[in-house]
Amino acid sequence: MIELLQEYWRAFLYTDGTHITGLAMTMWLLSASLLIGFVVSIPLSIARVSRRLWVRWPVQFYTYLFRGTPLYIQLLICYTGIYSLEVVRGQPLLDSFFRDAMNCTILAFALNTCAYTTEIFAGAIRSMHHGEVEAARAYGLRGWKLYAYIIMPSALRRSLPYYSNEVILMLHSTTVAFTATVPDILKVARDANSATFLTFQSFGTAAIIYLCVTFALVGLFRLAERRWLAFLGPHTLGPFMHHKTHDILAPVPGFAARSTASTSARAVPARSISRLRCMPTSCPACWWPGTSSNAWANCRARAACATRSCWCPSPTRWVWSRC
What is the pTM of this model? Predict the structure, then answer.
C-alpha cells in the first residue's frame, strides 16, 4: 500500500507528469458539466412548465430521452457514434470537436445532468405556493421580471436538497469517463492495478477519494440549505412572544416596539386596527432583536413573508393578523 501511494499519489491527485489526472480531472469534469447543465436547465425548466404544448413537449421529450437511457450509452454515442457519421467528419469544426475525448465526455455529462436538473427545477416551480405569485403580481411584476425576481429564486432555494443528490450522483457517474480514455480517478486506479496487481489497494484508494469528495459536497450543501432555506423554518419572532389564549403578540419587557418609517407614517387609531391590511414592511421573519427597524430590505423571503403573515402596528400592542 505504501509503495502504491509513493508511486501514484500524484497521479491520483492532480497529474501524472504530463497531463491532468485523477482528482483534478474528475473535479473538472464535474464542475464543467454541472455548470453547463445548470445554466441550460433554467430556461428549459421554465419551458417545461409552460401552458403552451409546442413549448413544453420538446423539453419533455428531451428529458424523457436522456433520463430513460443509461449515461454509459450516451457517452459512447457522443464519443464514437457521432464521429462515425460522414456529415460530422466533413465539417472541420465538428470534426475537431468530436475528435477530442474531453469534449465528448463533457457534452454527454452536461446533456445528462441538464435533463435531470430541468425536472428538478420544474418540480420546484410547480410546488410554489400560489399566494407568492399572486403577491408578486399585486406588486406589478409580470413576464420575465416575475420569473427573475420571485419564481426562479424561490424555486432554486427549494430545490437545493434535490439538486444536491443530483450533484452527488453526477460525481459518481464521472467514473464512466475512463471508457473515453479520460484519465479520471478510476482510470488512474485501473492503471495502478495493471502495473502493480494490488487490486484492493488501488480501487480502495479511489473509493476513499470519492468518499472524501462526497462528504465535502454534502457539507457544502448543508451550509447552503441552512443559509437559503431558513425561511421555510419557524418564523423568527424576535422580542415578541405569543399570547396563551388569544392570537396576540405582546412585547417582552425591556424591548420597545419599533416600526419602520413607512409603518409609523401610517399610524391609525387602535379601534380601526382590525380593518387594516397588513403591511409587508413589518414582516415577523425579518425582525432582528437589537436593530432599530425591521430589516425588510435584507429579507431573504419577501414573497413568502408577504403572503403568509405580517405585523399590524397598534399604539399599545402588536396584533397578529393574516394577510
Answer: 0.71
